[in-house]
Design a protein that fits this description.
Elements (H helix, E strand, L loop, with lengths): L1 E7 L3 H12 L4 E4 L14 E4 L1 H9 L7 E3 L1 E6 L5 E5 L9 E5 H10 L5 E2 L4 E5 L8 E4 L4 E9 L6 H5 L4 E17 L6 E7 L2 E7 L9 E9 H4 L4 H16 L3 E3 L4 E10 L3 E2 L2 E3 L5 E2 L7 H22 L6 H30 L3 H16 L1 H12 L5
Parallel strand pairs: 1-2, 1-11, 2-8, 5-13, 11-19
Antiparallel strand pairs: 3-7, 4-7, 5-6, 9-10, 10-11, 12-15, 12-16, 12-17, 13-14, 14-15, 17-20, 18-19
């Protein structure tokens, strides 16, 4: 079998790429190791999409249900510093959109099932660094020849391992907890984030959860040492009142609680021959700003642009310069976002008195500067595109 593009990984980003390329007459197939069963219900996990990511989905005919975030209130829980962001600062209708992961995954999968090889994965890639097109052998011994192999198979990317691409990683020594709460917040378009010694606590409006209209999602990053010897639910019960007091909002957990250890990683190179890494396969960051999936959509957008432009001009899509332009346009931006998130994690996680004074002053200073606030918002919304 011959195909222009093989996409390893049938997640949200891989499915989006497949759908966009197919709509531009560029045939592709997806190799997905799961059995293709779609999850039932909304689930607990949410993703926060910026304006650019939402528009990319609309352009390919996908419109998930969402809750708008028009205001974000950022507080230093140990002091008086704060920043208040508003969509009106950039003349936009929204800062971000909160969507259930299961729904978005189901919607993107629906359009790609007819070209997805489920219960399979790439075992071998031949001719990787030669003039010939790469040849892929799947787990079931299917042989496929392709021009480009797009690795969208997550942070433990099998394609990255086979391609001998090397990455750097760091441990935040934190655990993220996420769950759904019912809140008595009067403004359903407002999100909150509190930095404190009890962790980084984000509260964002969510679509209705099991009939509860005032549903909010909590993403709470906690130092592992504070969780030592405690059950997740025990820690939440003992400490959530602190944030209720800070925000003057009553919170009632109404779902199970998911937890996962927090680390980051970033590949030094995104391409090797005709193999290219995108999204979580190429990089991951701290979830404090909810930008991980948006970086994935930005990767996918630029990759599709370069492939489609080359295809229309009659240039081979595995021409080295085509994939290299994608890498140049995205690697530095992704690394900048990773370093920025690491800076904030270190700043707000420090017990140093002088750093505490600095962050209090910094938050208040930024809050008074329309220019700086607008810059931050435009970057986070994906408006400033390279």
């Amino acid at each position: 079998m011959n195909v222009p593009i093989i996409i390893s990984g049938g997640g949200i980003i891989g499915n989006y790429i497949s759908l966009r390329l197919q709509r531009n007459n560029i045939h592709n197939i997806i190799i997905e190791k799961s059995d293709g069963s779609l999850p039932k219900g909304s689930g607990i996990r949410t993703v926060t999409l910026n304006e650019n990511s939402i528009q990319l989905l609309k352009d390919v005919g996908i419109s998930p249900s969402f809750s708008k975030v028009e205001h974000i209130n950022v507080l230093d829980g140990e002091g008086s510093g704060k920043i208040q962001f508003a969509a009106s600062d950039i003349n936009a209708g929204s800062l971000s959109y909160v969507i259930y992961f299961n729904e978005l995954h189901s919607l993107t999968s629906e359009f790609c099932r007819d070209r997805t090889y489920f219960n399979n994965e790439i075992n071998t890639i031949q001719n990787l660094n030669t003039e010939s097109d790469p040849e892929v052998i799947l787990k079931d011994d299917t042989f496929i020849k392709a021009n480009v192999i797009a690795g969208c198979d997550g942070r433990n990317s099998n394609v990255a391992k086979i391609s001998s691409l090397s990455s750097k990683s760091d441990d935040y020594f934190q655990t993220a907890i996420t769950f759904i709460v019912e809140a008595d917040e009067n403004n359903k378009t407002k999100a909150h984030q509190v930095f404190s010694e009890k962790g980084i606590f984000a509260l964002m409006p969510a679509p209705d959860y099991q009939g509860t209209s005032n549903s909010y999602t909590v993403v709470w990053s906690i130092n592992n040492k504070d969780l030592r010897g405690k059950e997740i639910s025990e820690y939440v019960t003992a400490n959530i009142a602190f944030f209720e007091s800070k925000l003057s909002i009553q919170l009632r957990p109404i779902s199970d609680m998911l937890s996962f250890r927090l680390t980051n990683h970033h590949f030094e190179n995104y391409i090797n021959g005709s193999v290219v890494l995108l999204g979580d396969a190429a990089h991951s960051i701290h979830p404090l700003a909810g930008q991980g999936i948006n970086l994935g959509f930005a990767d996918a957008d630029v990759f599709c642009e370069e492939i489609i432009n080359a295809y229309k001009k009659g240039i081979s899509i595995n021409e080295k310069s085509v994939l290299k332009r994608y890498e140049i346009r995205r690697k530095s931006m992704n690394l900048l976002m990773l370093k920025s998130m690491d800076f904030f994690v270190d700043l707000f996680g420090s017990d140093n008195l002088y750093l505490r004074l600095f962050r209090n002053f910094g938050l208040s200073f930024v809050n008074k500067s329309r220019f700086i606030k607008t810059f931050f918002i435009r970057q986070a919304s994906g408006i400033n595109k390279i």
